Amino acid sequence: MSFLADMDSLVAYLLPLAPHLILIITALIVPAIGFKSGKAAAFFSLGAGLFAIAVTAYMMYTGYKGDFEGLYMFNDFTALMIMLFLVVFCLVVLMSISDSERTKHHGEYFAILAIATVGMMLVCAAEEMISLFVGLELANIMSFALVAFKKNDPRSAEAAVKYLITSGLSTALFLYGMSLMYGFTGTIVINDIIYSLATQEITWAYAVAVTTLIAGSAFKISLIPFHAWVPDVYEGAPTPITTFLAVGAKKMGFIVFFKLFLLMFVVVHFLSAAAGEVAEIHQLQWVFALLAAGTMTVGNIVAISQNNIKRMLAYSSIAQGGYILIVLSVGTDYSMAGGLLHMITHVFMKGGAFVVVAALAARGLGESIDDYKGLAKRAPLVAFAMMLFMFSLAGIPPLAGFYSKFVLFSSAVEGGTWIWLVAVAVVNSAISLYYYARVVKAMYVDKGSTTERFRVPVSFKIALAVCAIAVIVIGIYPGPVMELCEMASFEYINGFLEWLKSSPYV
Amino acid sequence: MIPIELFLLMSAVLFSIGLVGLLVRSNSIVILMCIEIMLNAANLNFIAFASHVGAPLAQIFVITSITVAAAEVGVGIAILLHAYKSKKTTDINDLTSMRW
Amino acid sequence: MEFFEIDIPFMLLLLVLPLIGTAFCSLVKRDANQGAIMFSGFTLAVALVYVCAMWTTDFTESFSTGWIETKYILINFDLYVDGMSMLMIVLTALLVFLVSIFSSSEKHNPRMFFAMLMAMEVGLMGVYMAHDYFLFYIFWEIVLVPMYFLISGWGGPRRHYAAIKFLIYTHVASLVMLIGIFVMVFEAAGASDQLNFTFSAVAAAAGGFDQLFQTAAFGLLFFGFAVKMPLVPFHTWLPDAHVEAPTAGSVLLAGVMLKMGSYGIIRICLEVLPQGAVAWQPFMIVVAIVAIIYGAYACIAQKDLKKMVAFSSISHMGMVMLAIATLSGMGIGFAIFQMFAHGLITAVLFMVCGICGHNAGTREIPLLGGLAGKMPIFAAFMMFGFLASLGLPGLVGFVAEFGIIMSFFEYLLSIDMIWPIIFALAALLLTAGYYLWAMQRSIFGKETDRIDLSDVHDVNKAEGFSLGVLCALIALFGIMPSIVMKLIEVVPLVISGVIV
Amino acid sequence: MEFIQFTWLIPLIPLLAFVIVGLFGGKFKNGLGSVAILSAIAAFVLSAIVSYEYFTGDLFAAGLAYIPEPIEWIAFGTYTLNFGIYVDSLTCVMMLFSSFISMLIFVYSIGYMGGEGKRKRRYYAEIALFLAGMLGLIVSSNYLEMFIFWEIMGVCSYLLIGFWSFKHPDGDEASVKAASAAKKAFLVTRLGDVCFMTGLFVLLWAFGSLDFTAMFDDPVGSLVNGNGTTIMIGTLLLFGGVIGKSAQFPLQDWLPDAMAGPTTVSALIHAATMVKAGVYLVARSYPLFVQNAEMMLIVAVIGGVTAFIAASMALNNMNLKRVLAYSTISQLGYMIMALGAGGYMIATEMAHGAADIDGAVGYTAGVFHMMNHAFFKALLFMCAGSVIHAVGTEDMRRMGGLGKKMKITSWTMLIGCLSIAGFPFFSGFWSKDMIMEAVMEPAVAGAASVFLFLFVLALITAFMTAFYMFRLWFMTFAGKPKDEKLHCHGESPVSMTLPLVILSVFAALSGFLMFFWLNDIITFNVIGGAFVVGGHGHEGMDILHEILYNQWTYVSLALSLFGILLAYLMYAKKAIDPARLNAGGNTRIYRALTARYYFPQLYDEIALRLGYDVAKGVDYADRNLIDGTVNGISNAMMGSSGMLRKLHSGHVQDYVAYMAVGVLAVFFVFYILIMTGGF
User: Fold this and answer.
1) Segments of A62-172 assigned E as strands
2) For D465-481, how does the pLDDT look when each residue is reduced to its tens digit (9 = 90+)?
3) For residue A147, what is the nearest residue in chain B, using CA coordinates?
């Protein structure tokens, strides 16, 4: 009996890491399957991903909150993010099932994918710097490998090299920042770091530390001017991996920002409120505002003149990063909810767009926008889905992208300080409409060279269907998802405030 | 006892050297080494602080980061090899097929 | 009334029928035009039943159901219909029905074409019924997409330029409007951290808005609406869009889409931000006068018949703005009247332009001449439309113009400054001038030899029908304006009550 | 009272005819002209019955008007605008002669427009609408209603003047001219109409209503806002409408051009309907006009000047119809002048606080002359029409000696000329002398020396009228044919000559009506401070006495006789060569007259500068400034996009450099913010 009891305790002990463990185990098994057939490996990892989602959802549903040795925690916020990454994982796996670009090493491919996902999930869950760093690097290193996976295409290798070097620099910056941070704070537990960051008066060394930290994670989010690698890598990488980077790895950087800086602002405001002063705006919020404005502007403007659709989407996802960064400058839990929501919708619309690209590539269509002319005649449903994703990205109602932008922008209006930022964002999303509409026009209005129809592989069809339905449903009935995000953000920020109140600091 | 500032200065110099190398050298292997230098500059910081406040956590961090760096280099070399196979060069200035 | 006890589905019909129509038209193998005519016909019937009910008892219908309710956001699916929106709804239903008939012989990708028409109808209906800012904005934006496709898919030579210009320009405007909405909603929410996007909630809190805030918010919203109307100098998307758009597109664009702007001003700006309106009144007056005169003058210089008509609708929407800017119950009433009248008249004008371009092969006035000989019926319709548009008494346009200038006159008397009335009167003269000039050069005079008129044919049955119905209505409401006025009476008195 | 309550049918019958003809006329060969004619006859008969009932009824005896309860047309704000019927003696006279003459003209059209084929339908439809407009205007019971019909008439005139705007019998040139003439007519009258409309605004604001009943009894008392000055402004604006419609100075210019239309249309416009509407408006609004003496002075002066100028322009014109057109303008000037003079008397007396004012001669004379003029001008135009119908040209220089070929036409036309020239005992004689008297009255009363001047103008005009009318007659009918090529196919068909004969009777004798019937009908008195139209007239014998024992009568008579004689000498006897007088048409005055005192050039210039040039400027600004800005922005976007994308050079070390720069930038921004403490 004691054994069973031990089993129970063991389960209880590992429960916070359940989703991670599922994927790790998958990663260990998949290569073995992969030797026999790539498809089987794909379906196995897909199943594992779905199972992990189910488990996470159930844990969240039961309101489970857990902590693993003070290293990793499991709460609504992490659960939501973990599910997000798992969804990305499943999406990418779906896209990879019949990926003609990959010739061999199917098993390894999915294993690496799983490990990368685990890395991102660890970042969500990390409670102190080491595990954060490990998670980041795990995801990073795996993505180099994945980017290079298109053996027969030199562009893939080039992309991998560029990614390797730039991200190496970012890692160095991040690590350097953390080291200095440790110097000031003498701790690597994030909550303590946040508190001392918020309370310490700011010296130039402090500024260096913070700057390098920002730079390190700004690379992941590809903020201006840390974005230069994005178009090349997105173009060169296998399309599923591009998706993985665009809708997955990007979010990792945001989570780092949320973990370090958003909470820091919360503390600042909380303390000033406690001291009965008016909450003045932290300088970093201005920095983030400027970064956001610059990012969305440059991203959108450069995207106008892109002819390769993958590059165009790359720039558009840079711009989307800019939108989400608004959260950092606003720093309310409402805006954070908007940010999370936009992350989720972004998964589906941008992911969907890439699925279309991959699906068409699987049928030998090029990546230039001109190759999409007359698509509405050739593959009506795919074209329709693509139109949905484009308009959703542009923020045309009643689609998911519109609603998340709606919440995001509206949150920035509060207080009136950031209304200029909203204005910039608004103008930008108008500009973005130009190049999104360009794709739609190519598909629906322009005449194609040929009109013979073709059908895309079923796995892509499923992926498309999932994304399209998600985009429509979230657009028309965003209530539940919105509630999830609000719950997560509220729980995240308030949980921290609770900790702060109970902590010896106040 | 040696003042901590010296260590910080040292690591800063190391970091800068790495960055400059990263900027000017064209051989991708060397660039990889520069990155290593920068990482180690950070590690030096950690060690310095650790000995300064006498906390073990930082040393754990250093060990971890060395491991990670090793992994990174491993994958990095593999990728460079792959690039060399397809492009027959280790000069990153030849890797400019994707631009604009 | 008993009949409307079961009104929940009944009111939604106005949205659902076109929606089904859209799906139907895009899915059927052929005869999409029949589908469009059928569904728009049903919608029209429903709208007419409503308007009759309204005409007997001037009631206002509303329908509300929860939609999105979270910790931070409350958005309801609220619909509300009163005289003003009813007029616009009937107009929409009528015009969509008529243009579906008018262009029922569309050859190029008819399924898509008629699907787009029906989609337009959904959006327009929604805008005029929505009573929740989120909903309002959604429909407001939905309208853009089908119009974009109509222009860029079935338009003239420069259609891509015109379409994208239309899309971006109006999109920017609506986003600015959206900011205005956010600002208002936040102000209304006050301390509570739940943003309530329903009209009713904002209206309830509107009393507490202070002058400065109202002025600012009014500015944001007004810009959004002004681009849509459009007012000079935010109008340049309109002529291009009109010139390139297919006839059906132009008719809906000028007939009901421009009205969205003025509708918004009356429905939102004036009801919620009266003090802001007062603060902006001088500006509005000036802008309106500029639009009127500028539009009229621009018309004189135009070579393209359709472009001329486009500018004329800028001028006439300026009239609407002028009436609204008087901020008097009478003025707003006649603004609505003019919106309705202009909707009917401009539809005729654009249909005529379309026929001219299609049958005679060109719309360039210098190339035309003496068409009346070859196409008498066309000439008759054209003349009727032009005369109606220049405000001939006995036709609907006159009533509107008379009332608008009268209310403007009263406003001027109230501020002891009469001379600006000159502009309004000059506009009347200019309008007559460019219409008569265009008529003289296009349908009168010696038969042109610059284009080949050997095989031109007169209007066909479908075109004749739609034009005939419109002309009949123009005459009817011109002779018995009280029919329309009775519906309007419900609205502006309420609003003018709000005006401080 | 049975029929009078069906007065609303009078305008409605022609309106129905318009609808019927317009819809179904195409099916029939003669375009359902019969329907139009029948409607005119019906309208005339009905108006005759109505008039009879009104005059025999006790309302007339009581000096009241028949005003049934109006129906509400539209209500807004505090105002209610109605549609109603207003029948008093003025209404009756107007509708009687206009419907009667229109009826004759319609009949005449059978012959005249015989050759039009399919387009008869359009013609008949439009003239029916025209008549409907006029009758509606006459019976309407408030100004807005009046304005609506007024405008409808304007459109009809536009359509009818432009009837030949494509496929003109005289070829393309003429058709282009017709089109532009139609446009001019509409625009000029539109200018007047805008004044009219503004007047409506002022009055509506002042009285709070536009119903005659509300405005006419003691107007100053029934004011809601404003004062006498407001009425002055309002009436002035109304009179602006009159100037446009009745082609008074300075807007007289459109009427001669309007000759481009068919002659029947000219007859309709000049005799029965359109231009009379202006005079009618003045007569109808007398209660408002007489509130201010200055107002009436203005009216009178405008009338006198118009009369003189128009007559002078007719002196040397060679176009048959244009001469008639000028004569119309000048005769209208007479009427307006008379109304002004009469009103001036009343106004001054009212200003002195007289409660009972004996009816103004001016009013009677003006309306009376309007009726007579209707008869003889219709006659003249129809004669001219039948001449043109016969010879196919309007140029008098090519005519001559037609008298032998067209007996009836020439004789009837002679009657017309005598009548308009004021030859004794023809209708024109009486009314013109009453006008002289009316103008003289204030002059001798010393109220204003202006009237002396006007009187002189009137005298000269009388002389000129006689001269140019007979010049016309002699050049056309007397002598021998000048142009051999000109083929004249004899007398016109009976459908055309019959109306001529009937009208000539009226033109000759209608003047005598004044002595036993009209004297008690065309009157305007102030009794007990209230305005009374009709009744309380002078005895016919008194009027006769007045005229015959007035020395000025003989002066004017002498002048007109001299004019006739002069014309005879110049154009029939050829004793005097006109060329000697005007140096072969090279004197400045001659050229000024042929150029109509350069009015057309002036107006064209104004229209060009104020209209087209400004429009060009606006268009330029629109294309380049406003739209240029919009396109400029988008181009700037494109350009910067093209430039920025070049930064992505593909060299990874550049990317690293950007990152390094980025780090520094973030650091410095952050540090500066720390120093400055945020924005």
Assistant:
1) 66-68, 72-74
2) 888 888 888 888 877 77
3) B79
